[in-house]
Design a protein that fits this description.
Layout (H helix, E strand, L loop, with lengths): L1 H6 L11 E7 L7 E7 L1 H15 L4 H10 L15 H5 L7 E3 L2 E3 L9 H18 L23 E7 L5 E7 H4 L8 E2 H16 L2 H18 L2 H31 L2 H33 L4 H4 L1
Antiparallel strand pairs: 1-2, 3-4, 5-6, 6-7
């Protein structure tokens, strides 16, 4: 390994995207080669594009979508944002990296300059705020309540970091992210402020506030109607009776050693047990809701 690192020859293992192997025969040794790493220009162009665009603040997902639109593929499959996770973290693209405790600067030719790589590392650190899941760590109050005015698709949370390291939060149409809708992103704070003003203005009218209270009480009473609760109690009782009958039938099937009948009873018992559990959960939920009935003043 010391010799390979000193000589800049390939030490084996996984060859990262953007490079290829050049083999040079060892004189006097049949089928033995010294391997050197060279730049694969077609792949390297894609690597440069990824680093350059990411350093501009373009998201990994958008970079993947653009490459796919240009007809590029990764291992015969479309690019995905996660494809670039290891690329953007890999110092080999700068030509200098640590190998087995040794600094190696003559094995991988540089594809990316150090400045671009370092900028990508800074953006990666800042973008981790959003990277772990589609649900940001700060509250997006309009999530599941907002729809695109162009296509009607739900609008989701989005964010990123600009060139100067400033964090931005947006609401973004799902189809627009997939480049299937022309809707532009909306600034999170601005949109939430405007809608908050609209909501306050709406409920400042006593007639509207009263109607909302009336509608809420009516919807609550409909959902927790005593008739619905009684109906659930009847269904629970009937399900329990059927379970008792099925148990009796199961015992008879075992006694007569009727395997087909045993399997049928066993299947039905499992279905009834699941149904009974679901009915009891519904009944308990409605009972709790009735006990915690909202008041008109409380809603106001």
């Amino acid at each position: 390994m010391d010799t390979s690192v000193a000589n800049g020859t390939f030490c084996g293992g996984h060859l990262i995207y953007g490079y290829k192997i050049r083999k040079e025969p060892i004189p006097g040794k049949n089928d033995r080669y010294i391997k050197y790493v060279e730049i694969d220009e077609a792949q390297a162009d894609i690597v440069r594009y990824v680093f350059t665009e990411y350093a501009k603040g373009v998201s990994k997902k958008q970079i993947a979508e653009r490459l796919n639109a240009q007809g590029h593929r990764y291992k015969d499959k479309p690019f995905a944002g996660k494809t670039f996770d290891r690329w953007l973290n890999n110092p080999k693209y700068t030509g200098v990296f640590e190998f087995g405790g040794r600094i190696c600067d003559n094995m991988y030719p540089a594809i990316i300059n150090k400045k671009t790589f370092d900028l990508a590392q800074e953006l990666l650190k800042k973008n981790r705020y959003f990277a772990k899941s589609n649900t940001p760590r700060i509250p997006y109050f309009l999530t599941s309540k907002l729809y695109c005015g162009h296509c009607g698709t739900s609008v989701i949370a989005d964010g990123g970091v600009g060139k100067m390291g400033v964090t931005y939060q947006y609401y973004y149409c799902k189809l627009a992210r997939a480049q299937k809708c022309e809707k532009k992103r909306e600034d999170k704070d601005l949109l939430e402020r405007e809608i908050t003003k609209m909501v306050v203005a709406h409920f400042s009218d006593p007639r509207r506030a009263k109607k909302t209270v009336d509608d809420t009480i009516a919807a609550y009473n409909k959902r927790t109607d005593i008739g619905i609760i009684k109906s659930l109690e009847v269904r629970i009782a009937n399900t329990q009776k059927e379970m008792d009958s099925t148990t009796t039938a199961y015992i008879q099937a075992v006694t007569s050693q009727n395997q087909l009948f045993i399997e049928g009873c066993d299947k039905r018992m499992k279905e009834l047990a699941a149904l009974l559990e679901d009915l009891k959960k519904q009944h308990l939920k409605l009972e709790l809701e009735r006990e915690d009935a909202p008041t008109r003043q409380g809603i106001l």
